[in-house]
Amino acid sequence: MDFTPLYPHSSSSSSKASSNGRYVLTAVGERLIVRSTTTMEIIRSWKCQQPDNLKPSLMNTGKQQALKLHEGKSQTLTTKSNRTASGNLRDSDAAVLSLRHPTSLPASTENQQLSLTCVSFSSNSQHVVALLRQATSTVVFVYSISSEEPVAHIKVGAEGVAAGEKAVTWSPSGESLMIWSDWGLRVTIWSLTSTQSKPVQLHSPKHGPSIGSDFSPTGRYFALLCRLPGSTHDHVGIYDTVTWACVSFFELSSGLMDSTHLSWSPCGRYLAIVESALFDYRVEIWSPTGLRLAVHAPYHDHPDGVSSLKDEGHLPKVSNQLGDRNHINSMKKDFSKLGDLSKELKAGEVPDGYIGLGIRNIKWRCGGEYLAIGGWDGKVRILNDLTWTPMCEIDLIEYPSGRVLSEPRDWIQRTCGQGIIPFEATSVKNLTAPLRPDFNKPNPTIGIRDIRWSHDGEYMACRNDSMPHTIFIFSFKAVTHMQTPSTDSKTTSTAPSVPLRPRMTSILHFVAPVRSMMWSPLATHLAAVCATSALYIWYPTQPGVQNLNNTEQVDYLEGIGIPARVPFAPVTASWTQGGGSILAADRNAFCLAFPIPEDHEGHRRDESMIMDL
A Gene Ontology biological process annotation (predicted)? Predict the structure, then answer.
């Protein structure tokens, strides 16, 4: 593994790699920097600053043409084609002050520390975007890596911009920008290529940019959870990302009282919609056309945990008052049971299994045939797309039996962060006990925090909050029947592969809590960081070792010290889209790590690199 030097940035989320893997975008204060991933040389550098030092502009610009969002003028887009005669970008309207901030400018803005957020590349890696939040206004800057001048900037006023790093995102085509307004007002789509005078608005999104929306696998359609004004039911809108016309709009069932997550399957045929964890453990499978296909609610009085669609109806366009009443009565019974359970529990006792919370996250397998559901109850359920029933239930409340790879203690200090350290095979008995959550405090340390599928769907990695030092890896490899002779003596026929139930492959145990993990997009390699000066890579088989005896090979995990001269503790690790490098970042700096190609793996096993502790 080769590492670049450290480079500064504003935060752990202010460095992003381009989709083609050639560039890395960094935000440092008010400046955007684009570097080459091969030489790390600076290709472009822009200082994002609004003209006139953000003072309200009351002048009449005359010939300048600006696109206005609506009559309130809460957003203004100025593009490269509508510059003033002097060649500078200027706003055509007076600045509209944000409702969340004081209506007067600060006494001194010279010492005010400003930083850029929501930095990202477009899908074609030719444009970059950044959001600058300030005391009285918010500005979105768009640049092209082929030009020093900005392509456009969008001035946001009273409606504000939602919190989070996904508040400003690119459309899959890279020709439009999506801005999520604060207060859940709307999603505004600004086209950088269209000549239309007004942007497109998607009204009444139920959630912010992090949950409640998803693109289809091809990027052609966009699904959005909506809660219309005055309505008591959630709706789903399907929009064409070329014209942004609504192609499908349907009401969800009454069983979804407060839907949260929405996830489009990789095959494009299913939408998984999750009920709020405060109400129920429930996920419904819908088609993009508005047909409900299945319901999974294991803690309800339904056979096999799946409710009957005949009783509840496929298309709940009309509210069923009797069904609503039955569902509410069922919820009351569930809450009464939880109340009785809490009274019976003594101080310090933790109930097994279901503790009254629902689904925490969901992840589709790469082909869309399996859906992994991680709950607050510490269990992972795998649904198949034939019957939408659980093919297995993985209980991670306690450590399961399996092969354990444990990190040697103090190896970073003893090796000064140099070399490669293989993890040791130990017993489950040597692992630390799971954390005992305190249910008297908010956000207890329970539940499946993260689920990740490998690029080919053969492995699944899970993290449980009650065991923060551990990653569980399960194998979903298919078995192939033995070859049988066919009618032609010269050929043999092979029976089709049959999917197996998941098998525990490894339990990865680290000294520090795991902060981030991610599979390589091209190979079965799992990268993880633990806020230490090391990068960890898991392999299904030990690299650089040839299996000459056809014996069963075991997996391999190694810790790689990051050679930094200053303290560097990465909290995020992300593979570039081509899988050629890993971007590791902490709060103050970032670096790129380049895995050694497989044809050079033999050179990485010399004694100067591997430390024997």
Answer: microtubule anchoring at mitotic spindle pole body
Of 324, 344, 346, 325, which Cα lies nearest the Cα of 336? 344
β-strand pairing of 2-3 with 589-594? antiparallel
Give CATH superfamily name and number for 255-333+357-395. Answer: YVTN repeat-like/Quinoprotein amine dehydrogenase (2.130.10.10)
Q: Which one, of 114, 120, 127, lies nearest residue 50 by Cα? A: 114
pLDDT higher than 80, residue 309 = no
In terms of C-beta density within 10 A (0-12 exposed, 13-18 middle, 19 or more buried), how is residue 397 classed? middle
What are the backbone dihedrals phi and psi of residue 2, each rounded to the nearest 5 degrees, phi first?
-105, 140
Q: Are the CB atoms for 271 and 221 separated by under 8 Å?
A: no
Nearest to 534 by CA among 576, 575, 591: 591
First to last CA, the chain: 20
Please state, in angstroms and rounded to a whole number, the distance separating the CA atoms of residues 61 and 232: 46
Q: What is residue 501's predicted lDDT score, i.e. its pLDDT?
A: 76
Pairing outcome for strands 67-68 and 75-79: antiparallel
Confidence of residue 303 (pLDDT cuts 50, 70, 90): very low
Look at residue 188 and tell me whether its pLDDT is greater than 60.
yes
Which position has the token pair 């899988």?
Answer: 579
Phi first, then psi: what are they for 110, rounded to 5°?
A: -70, -40
Rounded Cα gap, residues 194 and 57, in angstroms: 27
For residue 355, pLDDT over 60 is answered with: no
**What are 162's two structure tokens?**
């939602």
Identify the residue with better confidence: 99 or 593.
Answer: 593
CA quadruple 504, 508, 513, 514: dihedral, nearest 10: -80
Average pLDDT, the chain: 79
User: Residue 337: is its pLDDT beyond 90?
Assistant: no
Instruction: Tell me which residue of 93, 101, 23, 33 sits closest to 58, measured CA to CA.
Output: 93
d(CA 578, CA 575): 8
The SS3 assignment for 329 reads helix
Q: Tell me phi and psi for residue 273, to 5 degrees.
A: -120, 130
Residue 379 pLDDT: 93
N residues, the chain: 613
Return the number of other C-beta atoms located less than 10 Å from residue 515's C-beta.
Answer: 19
Please give the pLDDT value at position 18: 94
In the chain, domain spans: 15-103+112-200, 255-333+357-395, 398-477+497-605
pLDDT of residue 113: 66
SS (H, E, C) 1-36: CEECCCEECCCCCCEEECCCCCEEEEEECCEEEEEE
- Distance, in Å, from the CA atom of 357 to the CA atom of 108, rounded to the nearest integer, reads 48
> Does position 351 have pLDDT exceeding 50, yes or no?
no
Are 280 and 258 a contacting pair, CB within 8 Å?
A: no
pLDDT of amino acid 242: 92
Task: Give the β-pairing of 259-264 and 200-203.
Answer: unpaired
At residue 204, does pLDDT exceed 90? yes
Give 17's strand partners: 24
Pairing of strands 246-251, 359-364: unpaired
